[in-house]
């Protein structure tokens, strides 16, 4: 037991080092997916058949295929053009994959807003761009928070798949420690607790954000 405790204590700095990588990849992926998801949502709702068709196909593909396959394609599939670092492929894969889900959350929120608000904005002489910026998107963001936030939490958990393409994040560090120490379950449980803490903090941020929005209304 003492030996196990010593291994877990000694492994913690390495797991936390991996957790830092996990946090960085997750944060940049969240930022990218939130922005690109909005672009895809607006394209999906565009009157242009080309933009709408592209967005529809994009959403269908990235929601209909496994993230792991997408990561492997990005990491190994285009080496004849460019050989990416593991973190580059992981970042691109997470953004592309989850922007498809976030786009649908945005689209549902935008479509739930009454048409009368569009008409009122246009009657005041506001352009379509200003209507989106000042009237529609602020409301859509508040409406979409629960579903979008689920995607953000999923990004943190899905970042563990980056271990398959040699990204030194939390899961890969836990796997390497388990292999070197020949102790699997306790080390993986230790890593699982760190993931749990990260996702719980993110969910707590959602609660604070929703409370602040309610107070401001």
Number of discrete domains: 1
Number of helices: 8
- Provide the β-strand percentage band: under 5%
Number of strands: 0
* Class derived from helix and strand content: mainly alpha
The shape is flat
Average the pLDDT over all residues and give the rounded result.
92
- Which range best describes the helical content: under 10%, 10-25%, 25-40%, 40-55%, 55-70% or over 70%? over 70%
What does the main sheet amount to?
Answer: none
Distance between the termini: 55 Å
User: Which H/E pattern describes the elements?
Assistant: HHHHHHHH
CATH class: Mainly Alpha
The CATH superfamily is identified as MetI-like
By CATH, the architecture is named Orthogonal Bundle
Low-confidence stretches: none
Q: Can you tell me the CATH topology?
A: MetI-like fold
- Cα Rg: 21 Å
Can you give me a brief rundown of this structure?
The chain is an all-alpha fold and 217 residues long. It is built from eight helices and no strands. The longest helix is centred in the first third of the chain and has 43 residues, at 2-44.
Break the fold down into its secondary structure elements and pairings.
Elements: H1 2-44, H2 49-64, H3 67-76, H4 86-111, H5 115-123, H6 128-158, H7 170-181, H8 185-216
Helix pairs in contact: 1-2, 1-4, 1-6, 1-7, 1-8, 2-4, 3-4, 4-6, 5-6, 6-8, 7-8
Describe the structure.
The chain is mainly α. It has one domain: MetI-like (MetI-like fold). It has eight helices and no strands. Helix 1 crosses helix 4 and helix 1 packs across helix 8. It is flat and about 75 Å long.
């Amino acid at each position: 037991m003492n030996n196990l405790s010593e291994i877990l204590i000694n492994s913690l700095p390495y797991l936390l080092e991996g957790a830092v990588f996990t946090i960085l990849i997750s944060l940049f992926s969240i930022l990218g997916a939130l922005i690109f998801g909005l672009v895809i949502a607006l394209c999906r709702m565009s009157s242009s058949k080309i933009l709408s068709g592209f967005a529809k196909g994009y959403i269908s593909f990235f929601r209909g295929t496994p993230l792991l396959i997408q990561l492997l394609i990005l990491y190994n599939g285009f080496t004849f053009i460019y050989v990416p670092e593991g973190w580059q492929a992981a970042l691109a894969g997470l953004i592309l994959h989850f922007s498809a889900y976030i786009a649908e959350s945005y689209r549902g929120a935008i479509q739930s807003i009454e048409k009368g608000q569009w008409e009122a904005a246009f009657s005041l002489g506001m352009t379509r761009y200003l209507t989106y910026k000042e009237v529609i998107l602020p409301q859509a963001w508040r409406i979409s928070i629960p579903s979008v936030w689920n995607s953000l939490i999923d990004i943190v958990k899905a970042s563990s798949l980056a271990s398959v393409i040699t990204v030194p994040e939390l899961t890969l560090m836990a796997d390497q420690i388990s292999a070197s120490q020949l102790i699997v379950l306790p080390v993986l449980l230790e890593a699982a607790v760190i993931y749990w803490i990260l996702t719980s903090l993110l969910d707590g941020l959602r609660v604070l954000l929703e409370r602040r929005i309610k107070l401001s209304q």
